[in-house]
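Appendix B, example 12.
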Amino acid sequence: MTRLRAIATAAACALALVIATPGTASAEAIGDLHYTYTDAQGTEQREKLSDPDLPSSECLDVKQAQGDDTKPAHSPYNNTDTTVWIFPDRDCEGDRTILKAGAKGGVNLKFRSFYYHHS
């Protein structure tokens, strides 16, 4: 009976270890990030980034808002399953704004860079 109890205890401990071990975190945001930018002719355009597969610490500059004479992007809509950190300057500089999954930012939320913050 002692041997059976020892086997059962070992099996229970092994199962607890497997259940408690966290899996590998996915670095892919599922969904789309939408935003508005002003093109070279002065017309507002909508952009959509779909299902980015990026490390959570990789900063992305908004390509349409990089020139010295361009306006920052605005009105982000985070239609992904993860949080997006929005920054007013290039290279994720400046005070960040946190846009949770499913959240929208208005026309006053201006930004030039962002990254997906996987938790």
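Helices lie at 2-20. The chain is about 15% helix and 30% strand.
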